[in-house]
Design brief:
The complex is a heterodimer of chains A (about 250) and B (about 210).
Chain A (H helix, E strand, L loop, with lengths): L4 E12 L2 E12 L3 E5 L6 H7 L10 E9 L2 E2 L7 H7 E4 L10 H11 L5 H14 L3 H4 L12 H13 L5 E5 L7 H14 L4 E5 L3 H7 L2 E6 L2 E7 H6 L4 H7 L5
Parallel strand pairs in A: 3-8, 3-9, 6-7, 7-8
Antiparallel strand pairs in A: 1-2, 1-4, 4-5, 9-10
Helix pairs in contact in A: 3-4, 3-6, 4-6, 6-7
Chain B lengths: L1 H35 L2 H8 L2 H22 L3 H33 L12 H21 L8 H25 L4 H29 L7
Helix pairs in contact in B: 1-2, 1-3, 1-4, 1-5, 2-4, 3-4, 4-7, 5-6, 5-7, 6-7
The chains are: A alpha/beta (about 250), B mainly alpha (about 210).
């Protein structure tokens, strides 16, 4: 990968209690690209994703060794501000999880927490974020309605808008379409394609066709190891590793 | 579902092999009809034209259905790509067989010149190449298609030599041109064998090669 690297890990190991969940994972994530992580359940895709914004810190008995470098800084170095890190590395989850507040409040929440108080500035951020998340036209006339009244697909795009509002550099997506119907899924996929102009997107998905459709690079993980990572076209046309070949052709997993 | 897909893919490959053998047999019989001046055999080849065409349509449809229903990837995708090419090549080889059979029928009552030229020898070499290309597809074995480039060069040289030889006969009777065309058709069949070999290589390795 000749592009600028935004995230890199080297020899990353992670244990839950005694269980080794990530084993010597070394990966380089290029900037302004979409990277898909695929692999059977329990292979460590989500665990790896959650390493990038240190979300695993919230789980007891997790031990990590190895390095994760983001923007040339080791994110486990003493003095790292986890809040700043998570602002920089936004995340969207499997199930849409809007706050039980208005649409406007959902998007304005992050900037407010980070100290933006000016109402017109907040309005600008809310509109821009909703536009970037391709949902503005659907909600602009009901910004004060509850976010919980939106459809699942709209809620997920709202969650993406909420992530965008704090101007992250990287967006982590953990199975963002698994709870959505095909039309809502297509909208999210289109959105991912647009987002890569300004952001780096790392997406975990069980849907290999989705990985093939949306990503520039694909990493295949198996039993905690990164087996192979390469250009998506190459992985799905002629992977180098037999394990990858067997997984993507449905021979196991 | 993966198991169902792989069973279907296996069936598709088996049916495609049968079609490939049919194309090859049409070519072999046509050449035999030409050499033996056997109009009945030639007629039997011509009669199989529709059958191979129907197979082509049916097998292509099967390929498209598998793509639409299962979105195959990696080697599975490459196997279907290769199968589509093999279907096409088999049809073409069969059709060249039919064309040669028509020539055989037309000239079956005239003095044979086919045997005087190197056509029987050339036909054997071409059909060997077709056989090996089909065998490579059947057995996923690339060894049998090694050396295809040199074999194709021999075919090209033979076609050239037969053409020169044929000019002599054409000077005697311009109608003999159809016999020279047989060498041209055989050479095209060898090219199709090379195309099959290239695609089997892609199916197996995932890399494109060019045999020339």
């Amino acid at each position: 990968m000749s592009e600028t690297t935004i995230i890199s890990t080297s020899n990353l190991n992670l244990w839950y209690h005694e269980k080794l969940a990530l084993q010597s994972v070394s990966i380089k994530i290029p900037k302004n690209k979409v990277i898909a992580l695929i692999g059977p359940s329990g292979c460590g895709k989500s665990t790896l994703l959650r390493c990038f914004n240190r979300l695993n810190d919230l789980i007891d008995h997790v031990k990590i060794s190895g390095e994760i470098i983001i923007d040339n800084k080791n994110i486990h170095a003493a003095g790292t501000d986890v809040v700043t890190l998570r602002k920089k590395i936004g995340m969207v989850f499997q199930k849409p999880n809007p706050f039980p507040k208005s649409i406007w409040e959902n998007v304005a929440y992050g900037p407010k927490v980070h100290g933006v108080n000016d109402k017109s500035e907040l309005n600008r951020i809310v509109e821009q974020s909703l536009r970037h998340a391709a949902i503005w036209d659907e909600v602009k006339d009901r910004l004060n309605d509850s976010a919980l009244g939106l459809s699942g697909g709209q809620q997920q795009r709202l969650c993406i808008a909420r992530t965008l509002a704090v101007e992250p550099e990287v967006i982590l997506m953990d199975e963002p379409c698994s709870a959505l119907d095909p039309i809502a899924t297509a909208k999210i996929e289109n959105l991912i394609d647009m987002l890569k102009q300004d952001y780096t997107v790392i997406i975990v998905t069980h849907n290999m066709q989705q990985a093939a459709r949306v990503s520039d690079y694909t990493g295949f993980m198996y039993l905690g190891k990164l087996i192979e990572c390469g250009k998506t076209v190459q992985i799905f046309e002629h992977p180098n590793e037999e394990l990858t070949e067997n997984y993507i052709t449905g021979r196991f997993g | 579902m993966a198991e169902k897909f792989h069973t279907e893919l296996q069936n598709l490959r088996q049916d495609t092999l049968e079609m490939a053998h049919q194309g090859r047999d049409m070519l072999r019989s046509a050449v035999d009809a030409l050499i033996r001046q056997d109009p009945d055999l030639a007629e039997s080849v011509i009669a199989r034209k529709e059958e191979i065409h129907e197979r082509e349509v049916r097998l292509e449809e099967h390929c498209y259905q598998l793509i639409a229903l299962y979105q195959p990837m990696a080697k599975d995708m490459r196997a279907i790509a290769c199968t589509l090419k093999l279907i096409n090549a088999s049809l073409r080889i069969g059709r060249y067989g039919k064309t040669i059979a028509k020539i055989a029928k037309e000239i079956s009552d005239k003095p044979s010149i086919a045997n005087l030229m190197s056509i029987p020898h050339m036909a054997d070499l071409v059909i060997d190449m077709v056989d090996d290309a089909i065998a490579a597809y059947e057995s996923d074995n690339l060894n049998v298609i090694e050396g295809f480039s040199a074999r194709d060069d021999t075919i090209d040289a033979l076609r050239h030599s037969i053409f020169r030889e044929g000019i002599t006969y054409m000077m005697e009777d311009p109608k003999n041109i159809s016999r020279c065309m047989v060498a041209r058709y055989l050479e095209r069949c060898a090219d199709h064998a090379c195309k099959i070999a290239e695609n089997v290589h892609y199916m197996e390795i995932g890399e494109r090669i060019e045999i020339k």
